[in-house]
Amino acid sequence: QVQLVESGGGLVQAGGSLRLSCAASGRTFSNYAMGWFRQAPGKEREFVATVSWTGGTYYADSVKGRFTISRDNAKNTVYLQMNNLKPEDTAVYYCKAGPTIRTMTSSDSWGQGTQVTVSS
Question: How many percent of the chain have pLDDT more than 70?
Fold first, then answer.
C-alpha cells in the first residue's frame, strides 16, 4: 500500500552535506514508521535513522550528531539531512516504511535506493 521514491544522493567530499528525500504515496504514511537504511558494497543493509508514526526520532550510533531525520506530513515526505559526511557513509540509501524502528521486517515497503558517495 506504500510506494516510496528516494532522491538527493550524489557525490560529495568528506565533510560535506547532502539532503535525501523520500516521497511516499498510499494510505499508511501516518501509521508506519519511516526511515533510512543503507547498504555498502559487500556489507549487510544497516539501520541509519527512523522517525516513528508518533514523531520520535532514532539514529544509529555511527550517524548520531551528524544526520537529522524529519518529516513533512502534508507532503508525505521524509528527509535525511546528512552533515559532516565521511567516506564510511558511502552506500546506497534506502527509504523504508514499516512497523519497526531499527529492524527490517517482511511487511516493510522499500524505495529503490539512492547512491551516496563520499570521497576522502
Answer: 95
